[in-house]
């Protein structure tokens, strides 16, 4: 075994972990399925930098820090394997399997930092399966990778900082944004005021939030959205909506949905570590201690995969997990551990304190969180909300029972897109402190893999 630590994910958390490992003389192997490091926040940033430089321009300061992080990561003594999709992790994390250029490799791991990030909370709306509907994050990824925005008349719908950011980025790139429909309204700001004092400790975060709220594109806006359905025969033709201020219809060719982000727990669930329900963020997340260590020794989860706190916190948590591993390996003393960790742990506390404000302002209303009628909940298996409700009424009380009765969650997305909505449907008191049933079991492979690739796998013991 050549590595002291295997890091999964080269976003801010994974890169910071690798840089920290290298600075302490640990050998780190970093695996990421993308062609370049950066993660969601700094995706394709090196490419963008080269494009802008060729046009005689520079990156904005907020992006420059990502470029600097990637440079430090590339210059560190880290082995980085790009386009490496991790498809399995053994219980407790001592073995990792990944696919790289069509070949499968299984490697042992003494210590693991899983930093797989987050994904957008899927909220099934009527018509969300129509061509022309995509997530705001996917539209943003397309813009980051190609420099081109989505074509046609665009409506952005939902809530969260990323919705506002994408609206601004698309608009700046010349996209035809014709509407911004937000669930957020004055009542949400009012409900969030008790959290303002704690958030004031994160002045930069607050400033960024204010900029997002005040620098939205000059397009028709709807606030306090309570219901929406996407209309079209074989492609999006428009959105019908209802809000506290009335109802209406906007004609469009594309709808970009976004309702915040939730941790990507596929790997941590596959590794069998303990998870807990985060009531504030309405999602499952792995239970981690002050070092990001899960219930399995030397298996850390850093960054948004361990709880949504953003890129700055992701870097801090990545570094903390390595400090713990380095201390166990005898590379740093008790004293150095405390000295290096203290500012990181303080920073994480400060950022976590600001989170309650953000989560309260950007809140999905119950009318949209819980789908009904003919709304397709599971797009892979085409299972509707009515079918799930009927199965639940006939006694299917957990996700496993629902799966067996309706095939919800049995498709290629491995329940990533439907399980949150199905769970909300069968947990009537989810907004009143009622804990939902445990999430669906995750089984390998979590990425598509052929029998041939499995048979020819390179296994290192
Ligand atoms: C779609 C989307 C867009 C976002 N855009 C922004 C933005 O513009 N600005 C902003 O401030 N914040 C944005 N965020 C929030 C951002 O994710 C966090 O602030 C921050 O990037 C979290 O860092 P991380 O390292 O935890 O995860 P990420 O940056 O998400 O990095 C996770 C990495 O893990 C890799 N990975 C995941 N699973 C596997 C696997 N099985 N095998 C191999 N590799 C794997 C991914 O390819 C990715 O590179 C976005 C979030 C999402 C979901």
From TrEMBL:
<protein>
    <submittedName>
        <fullName>(2Fe-2S)-binding protein</fullName>
    </submittedName>
</protein>
<dbReference type="Pfam" id="PF04324">
    <property type="entry name" value="Fer2_BFD"/>
</dbReference>
<dbReference type="InterPro" id="IPR007419">
    <property type="entry name" value="BFD-like_2Fe2S-bd_dom"/>
</dbReference>
<feature type="domain" description="FAD/NAD(P)-binding">
    <location>
        <begin position="4"/>
        <end position="304"/>
    </location>
</feature>
<dbReference type="InterPro" id="IPR051691">
    <property type="entry name" value="Metab_Enz_Cyan_OpOx_G3PDH"/>
</dbReference>
<keyword id="KW-0560">Oxidoreductase</keyword>
<dbReference type="InterPro" id="IPR017224">
    <property type="entry name" value="Opine_Oxase_asu/HCN_bsu"/>
</dbReference>
<dbReference type="InterPro" id="IPR041854">
    <property type="entry name" value="BFD-like_2Fe2S-bd_dom_sf"/>
</dbReference>
<dbReference type="InterPro" id="IPR036188">
    <property type="entry name" value="FAD/NAD-bd_sf"/>
</dbReference>
<dbReference type="GO" id="GO:0016491">
    <property type="term" value="F:oxidoreductase activity"/>
</dbReference>
<feature type="domain" description="BFD-like [2Fe-2S]-binding">
    <location>
        <begin position="376"/>
        <end position="426"/>
    </location>
</feature>
<dbReference type="InterPro" id="IPR023753">
    <property type="entry name" value="FAD/NAD-binding_dom"/>
</dbReference>
<dbReference type="Pfam" id="PF07992">
    <property type="entry name" value="Pyr_redox_2"/>
</dbReference>
């Amino acid at each position: 075994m050549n590595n002291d630590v295997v890091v999964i994910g080269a976003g801010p958390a994974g890169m910071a972990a690798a840089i920290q490992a290298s600075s302490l003389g640990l050998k780190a192997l970093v695996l990421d399925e993308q062609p370049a490091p950066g993660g969601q926040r700094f995706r394709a940033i090196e490419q963008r930098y080269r494009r802008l430089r060729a046009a005689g321009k520079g990156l904005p300061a907020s992006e420059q820090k990502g470029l600097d992080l990637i440079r430090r990561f590339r210059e560190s003594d880290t082995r980085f394997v790009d386009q490496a999709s991790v498809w399995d992790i053994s219980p407790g994390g001592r073995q990792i399997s990944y696919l790289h250029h069509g070949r499968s490799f299984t490697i042992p791991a003494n210590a693991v930092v899983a930093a797989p990030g987050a994904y957008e909370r899927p909220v099934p709306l009527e018509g969300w399966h129509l061509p022309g509907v995509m997530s705001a994050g996917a539209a943003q990824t397309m813009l980051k990778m190609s420099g081109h925005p989505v074509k046609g008349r665009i409506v952005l719908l939902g809530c969260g900082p990323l919705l506002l950011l994408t609206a601004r980025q698309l608009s700046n790139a010349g996209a035809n944004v014709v509407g911004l429909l937000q669930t957020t309204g004055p009542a949400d700001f009012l409900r969030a005021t008790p959290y303002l004092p704690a958030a004031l400790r994160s002045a930069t975060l607050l400033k960024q939030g204010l900029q997002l709220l005040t620098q939205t594109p000059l397009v028709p806006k709807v606030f306090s959205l309570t219901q929406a359905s996407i209309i079209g025969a074989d492609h999006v033709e428009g959105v019908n909506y209802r809000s506290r201020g009335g109802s209406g219809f906007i004609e469009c060719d594309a709808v970009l949905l976004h309702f915040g982000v939730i941790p990507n727990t596929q790997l941590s669930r596959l590794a069998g570590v303990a998870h807990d329900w985060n009531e504030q963020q309405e999602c499952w997340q792995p239970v981690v201690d002050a070092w990001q260590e899960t219930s399995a020794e030397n298996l850390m989860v850093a960054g948004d995969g361990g709880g949504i706190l953003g890129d700055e916190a992701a870097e801090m948590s990545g570094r903390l997990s390595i400090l713990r591993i380095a201390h166990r390996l005898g590379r740093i003393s008790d004293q150095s551990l405390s000295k290096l960790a203290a500012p990181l742990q303080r920073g994480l506390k400060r950022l976590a304190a600001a989170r309650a404000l953000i989560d309260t302002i950007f809140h999905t209303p119950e009318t949209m969180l819980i789908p009904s009628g003919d709304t397709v909940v599971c797009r892979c298996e085409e299972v509707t909300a009515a079918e799930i409700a009927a199965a639940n009424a006939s006694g299917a009380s957990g996700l496993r029972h629902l799966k067996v009765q309706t095939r919800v969650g049995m498709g290629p997305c491995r329940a990533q897109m439907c399980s949150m909505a199905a769970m909300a449907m069968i947990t009537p008191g989810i907004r009143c402190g009622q804990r939902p049933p445990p999430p669906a079991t995750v089984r390998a492979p979590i990425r598509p893999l052929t029998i041939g690739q499995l048979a020819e796998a390179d296994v290192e013991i």
